[in-house]
Amino acid sequence: MRSGSALFAFASFLAWAVPAGAQTAVPPAAGAEAFPACLAGLRRDAVSSGISKKVVDEATAGLAYNGRVIELDRAQPEFFQTFWRYFETRITEQRVQKGRDLMAQNRNLLSRVEEQYGVPARYLVSFWALESNFGQFTGGFKIVESLATLACDPRRSDFFKSELFNAFRILAEGAVPPQKLQGSWAGAMGQTQFMPSTFMRYALDYDGDGRRDLWSSLPDVFGSSARYLSSIGWKRDQDWGREIRLPAWFAWEQADLEIKKSAAEWRSAGVTEADGSPLRDDGLTGSIILPGGWRGPAFIVFDNFRTILNWNRSLSYAVAVGHLADRFTGKPALVATKPADDEPMSRDAVMELQRRLTALNYDIGNADGVVGAKTRVAAKAFQKRAGLPADGYPTLDLLQHLRQYAAK
């Protein structure tokens, strides 16, 4: 949900539930013409759930459908860019150096937060960097307008309805002045882009000034982020993971977050450190992931990586957070290099791939052009069936195989 990078912070799957009575029935409606009726239903449901009518009326006065929000929702970079394009625009030498400088400048604050919550400073600064470029870009969308637009769109209406009601609650408690309730197109707020539900549960007044200010107060930003990560499972003194090297004969289907093995087991499968040395034993069970497919870099990841995924469900994002945090402490860049033909799939190509998988009775959910977990699982199943490297990574080459398969 970073400003300018259109991220849907799945961080807030821990959303505050809207009471059952409030989930009645606002039928999702696509488009500007249907928006007024949908908004009226949202207003009624919000009041029925116990939110002040005055707050709801003031927050929605003059509210209009924002088509740009829907455009951005359909073009999230984690799902359309290749791993390398996503990674290289976010992990730059300039950003690494700036992060190191800011860690030094805020050492005392970050040390205090780390001691209290067990989340190392380098990770807090990494989230800060990726979410808002160290606080420079927190987003210029009106939160209520964005959330109402998305709540009236069929794709994730229930989720965004819940987030909209939490935005009303934030306004009701006076945690944020109405004019300051701005953020990303998807409703994320502040320098680390909390969704309203995450704000309600985890935002802190860490500087003691009486306000939970994730826009202007670095103590509140770092304290809230660390509290959130600690609450959802961050393990003190454990790494997120690291780059590794896989042998050419590796069973690609073993690269799966659901598969955990010891270092000894992975070594027996031919896994080494990225430089080719024997895989070291961290005393943890780890999973192997291939965010760029079998031709891209490989990583062994641990439980803290899964915690990062609670912030944003993109493998590319979670790797970027972990790797950038490592770079702040002097660890090297990736060993793997980008292939010359690194090309993203268009939305139309993804939708065709999804339709062809569906035609073969694989469950991809909706053919919406977004590469989610179901699409990857279906892609992996077809790859195994077709004798291809089963990495679950949708590519134009995989689409061509599906076309050829259908022609047989």
Describe this structure in words.
With 408 residues, the chain is mainly α. It has helices at 35-48, 53-60, 67-73, 77-80, 83-90, 93-105, 107-117, 121-132, 143-151, 157-173, 196-202, 218-231, 263-268, 303-311, 315-328, 347-359, 373-386, 396-407; strands at 141-142, 182-183, 241-245, 272-273, 287-289, 298-301. A hairpin with an 8-residue loop joins strand 5 (287-289) and strand 6. The protein is globular, with a radius of gyration of 22 Å. Mean pLDDT is 90; it is low at 1-27.
Furnish the topology, listing elements before pairings.
Elements: H1 35-48, H2 53-60, H3 67-73, H4 77-80, H5 83-90, H6 93-105, H7 107-117, H8 121-132, E1 141-142, H9 143-151, H10 157-173, E2 182-183, H11 196-202, H12 218-231, E3 241-245, H13 263-268, E4 272-273, E5 287-289, E6 298-301, H14 303-311, H15 315-328, H16 347-359, H17 373-386, H18 396-407
Antiparallel strand pairs: 1-2, 3-4, 3-6, 5-6
The radius of gyration is: 22 Å
SSE topology string: HHHHHHHHEHHEHHEHEEEHHHHH
Q: Count the helices. How many?
A: 18
Beta content: under 5%
Report the principal-axis shape: globular
Strand arrangement in the largest pleated sheet:
4-3-6-5
| Terminal Cα span | 43 Å
Largest sheet: 4 strands, antiparallel
Number of domains: 3
Which regions have little confidence, pLDDT < 50, spanning 5+ residues? 1-27
Keywords for this entry:
47% helix; 6 strands; mainly alpha; two-stranded antiparallel ribbon; 408 residues; disordered N terminus; 3 domains; 4-stranded antiparallel sheet; Muramoyl-pentapeptide Carboxypeptidase, domain 1
